[in-house]
């Protein structure tokens, strides 16, 4: 066959034969043999509408890859292409080698890159993760109990910008999670953990005023102070014995952690002599620092008191003002308990000597409140102070007669009965079984007063039969009559 004839036949085969001469579509001949005709390819304008039917993985925003069918992989990736997601946190991280091998073998090839989009995706995903309540509970329950998992997570947080990291410190959910992760590092044993503690502590100390004024970040400061001293998290119940300090690292680790605690303690204790200590969050930070200092036996409390006394004005007026504050007084309670005997003597001579009566004068109007709230120790201490200073006795006796229903001349003889029974006397018949231990202790101190006019009249009015009943009572015999016979 000539070549030109073959060329013409080939060109004729390329003509569309799907339509016959009458304009009707012909039946597909391949369908008779069980084959399906290939559908026409969509135009470029319709490709975007069917992007979910693509055969190859589609790269979504933030560095994630969307597989066919619209399912996206929202896991987080760390350095070196390591992939971890929310479900991975429930695994046991104690077997480190096996876990890392399993994770690295399961990473898809498309996710092994470390490009620019990968670095940008990690922090934003991580911030969203921390601000989720459910993920916070997951981190506390699983990562918080694994030191290895806590190191991985905190290392990822350390990559964030300072501004974003501070936002996490001031948020309740994220700050609670970070606090749990740091307690999981206890006891700190290597340089990587020390670097994490130093990184977060430095950022908090650089923003000290804002950090101690926020409840969430203040808990994080207290956590870092305890971890730096080798102390675990506080238990919910009061422990019978103080916790033991633990350091597993070498001397370099101890030295680095000591520097971290010294900076936190310096900032906290410098605020002790300022009015800012009345802030409840700062007060709790200082109390925890003092407690950690006492357990670690670093001796910063005594040095601080001596420094305050050196700067105090004559008479210690500024110190006494701090003692009157609601939150600052709690700080000073911890501070005094940790001082040496020499420091306490110096504090007494500077701030207390010559002003004991002033304290009693301020507390006298509150005496009825102390009694009604069962503050027997405070009430007894005030009475003992008044027993040594006669000018304080009359105001206290008036307050006591008012509380014990003996302020009038008609019922002043009931004062003795009402005190020893704590107002359980009916005014007519005395029942010795109603005698109370705390009431007898109060009466024991009252018998040492010099202002005894009302009390002497009450004792003279007691019938002999009731005297015999009181002698037979253990409380009255030990605390009332024993004292009464010594002053006769």
Outline the structure in words.
The chain is mostly helical. Among the domains are: 161 residues; 127 residues, no CATH class. Helices cover 57% and strands 2% of the residues. A two-stranded antiparallel ribbon has the order 1-2. Helix 7 packs parallel to helix 10, helix 11 packs antiparallel against helix 12 and helix 12 packs parallel to helix 15. The protein is elongated, with a radius of gyration of 40 Å. One of its GO terms (cellular component) is preribosome, small subunit precursor. One of its GO terms (molecular function) is RNA binding.
List keywords for this structure.
57% helix, two-stranded antiparallel sheet, mainly alpha, 488 residues, 4 strands, elongated, two-stranded antiparallel ribbon
Which blocks of ≥5 consecutive residues have pLDDT under 50?
41-121
Q: What value does the Rg take, in angstroms?
A: 40 Å
Count helical runs.
Answer: 25
Compressed to H and E, one letter per element, the order equals HEEEEHHHHHHHHHHHHHHHHHHHHHHHH
Specify the overall morphology: elongated
């Amino acid at each position: 066959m000539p070549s030109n004839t073959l060329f013409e036949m080939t060109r004729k085969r390329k003509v569309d034969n799907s339509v016959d001469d009458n304009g009707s579509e012909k039946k597909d001949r391949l369908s008779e043999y069980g084959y399906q005709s290939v559908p026409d390819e969509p135009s470029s304008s319709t490709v975007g509408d069917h992007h979910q039917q693509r055969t190859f993985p589609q790269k979504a925003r933030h560095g994630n890859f969307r597989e066919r069918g619209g399912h996206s992989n929202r896991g987080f990736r760390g350095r070196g292409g390591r992939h971890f997601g929310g479900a991975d946190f429930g695994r046991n991280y104690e077997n480190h080698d096996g876990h890392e091998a399993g994770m690295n073998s399961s990473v898809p090839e498309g996710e092994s890159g470390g490009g620019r989009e990968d670095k940008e995706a990690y922090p934003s995903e991580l911030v969203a993760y921390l601000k989720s309540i459910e993920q916070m509970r997951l981190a506390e329950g699983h990562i918080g109990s694994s030191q290895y998992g806590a190191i991985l997570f905190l290392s990822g947080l350390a990559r964030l910008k300072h501004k974003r990291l501070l936002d996490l410190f001031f948020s309740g959910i994220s700050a609670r999670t970070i606090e749990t992760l740091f307690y999981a590092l206890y006891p700190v044993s290597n340089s990587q953990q020390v670097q994490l503690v130093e990184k977060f502590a430095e950022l908090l100390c650089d923003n000290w005023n804002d950090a101690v004024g926020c409840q969430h970040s203040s808990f994080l400061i207290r956590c870092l102070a305890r971890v730096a001293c080798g102390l675990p998290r506080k238990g919910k119940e009061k422990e019978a014995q103080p916790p033991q300090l633990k350091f597993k690292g070498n001397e370099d680790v101890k030295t680095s952690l000591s520097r971290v605690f010294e900076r936190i303690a310096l900032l906290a204790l410098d605020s002790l002599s300022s009015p800012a200590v009345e802030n409840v969050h700062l007060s709790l930070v200082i109390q925890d620092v003092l407690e950690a200092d006492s357990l670690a036996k670093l001796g910063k409390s005594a040095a601080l008191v001596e420094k305050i006394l050196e700067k105090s004005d004559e008479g210690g007026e500024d110190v006494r003002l701090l003692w009157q504050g609601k939150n600052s007084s709690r700080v000073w309670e911890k501070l005094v308990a940790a001082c040496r005997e020499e420091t306490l003597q110096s504090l007494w001579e500077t701030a207390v000597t010559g002003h004991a009566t002033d304290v009693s004068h301020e507390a006298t109007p509150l005496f009825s409140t102390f009694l009604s709230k069962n503050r027997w120790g405070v009430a007894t201490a005030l009475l003992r102070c008044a027993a040594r200073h006669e000018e304080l006795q009359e105001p206290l006796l008036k307050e006591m007669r008012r509380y014990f229903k003996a302020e009038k001349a008609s019922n002043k003889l009931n004062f003795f009965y009402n005190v020893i029974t704590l107002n359980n006397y009916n005014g007519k018949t005395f029942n010795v079984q109603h005698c109370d231990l705390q009431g007898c202790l109060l009466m024991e101190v009252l018998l040492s007063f010099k202002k005894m006019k009302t009390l002497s009249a009450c004792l003279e009015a007691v019938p002999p039969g009731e005297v015999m009943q009181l002698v037979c009572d253990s409380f009255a015999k030990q605390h009332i009559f024993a004292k009464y016979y010594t002053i006769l």
